[in-house]
Q: What sequence folds into this?
């Protein structure tokens, strides 16, 4: 329904109200701003991150990036989905988004994919990649859902089959984005991150303490992870005044 149709259906609605954001596809979570609000300031900040990321990897082949946070509730999964869409929209880029948060998977829900076999099923059962690789409504973006929760998630992510899978995906995609569990309560992100080209730490304004963020960074680095930076979410100030992408080394 367009804004004009809404006005006609609700004649008492004040015409001076801000425009209603029209969700073009209700199966995709409305917080996936790069999909629903491509011209918003938030979407532009994701594109700014994409520009920085592509500049950092210039001259290299397929790039594999793990996205994590210090604790749950900091927006890592939404950030992973928005970043993956943003990359897939760029010319000549093809992206695979993996949900490796077996305990609390959300990538499939955010993109309206429903239930089905996923990464754990591929690694534990006799499945082919095509059995779990899902196309999305975003061109050049494919997803592998988490699948059923395994008994030992960290051990599964440390298996040789994960290395083989990443090698296979790098022949098909220019970028691999992994949504991982938060780093402070679980070791999964550190285990998987050591196999990736880089790890991005999501930090939530007003929730993540400096101590939590620094602890997460140190845990990742001790495990041999290449922490490329942090991504700030839930910014209360004007978004155009804040650089969401910040180098942790600064």
A:
């Amino acid at each position: 329904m367009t804004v004009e149709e809404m006005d006609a259906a609700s004649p008492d609605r004040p015409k001076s109200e801000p425009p209603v954001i029209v969700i073009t596809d209700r199966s995709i979570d409305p917080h996936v701003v790069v999909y629903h609000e491509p011209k918003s300031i938030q979407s532009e900040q994701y594109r700014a991150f994409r520009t920085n990321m592509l500049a950092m990897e210039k001259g290299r082949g397929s790039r594999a990036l793990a996205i994590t946070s210090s604790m749950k509730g900091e927006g890592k999964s939404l950030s992973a989905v928005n970043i993956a869409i943003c990359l897939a929209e760029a010319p000549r880029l093809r992206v695979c988004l993996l949900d490796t948060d077996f305990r609390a998977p959300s990538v499939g829900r955010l993109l309206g994919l429903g239930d089905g076999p996923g990464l754990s099923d591929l690694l534990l059962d006799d499945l082919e990649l095509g059995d779990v690789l899902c196309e999305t409504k975003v061109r050049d973006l494919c997803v592998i859902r988490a699948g059923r929760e395994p008994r030992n998630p960290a051990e599964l992510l440390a298996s040789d089959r994960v290395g083989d899978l990443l090698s296979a995906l790098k022949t098909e995609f220019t970028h691999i984005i992994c949504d991982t569990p938060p780093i402070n309560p679980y070791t999964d992100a550190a285990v998987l991150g050591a196999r990736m080209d880089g790890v991005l730490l999501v930090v939530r304004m007003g929730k993540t303490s400096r101590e939590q963020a620094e602890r997460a960074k140190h845990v990742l680095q001790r495990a041999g992870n290449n922490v490329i930076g942090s991504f700030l979410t839930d910014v209360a100030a004007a978004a155009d005044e804040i650089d969401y992408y910040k180098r942790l080394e600064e």
Summary: The first strand starts at residue 63 and ends at 69. The chain has one domain: 3-246.
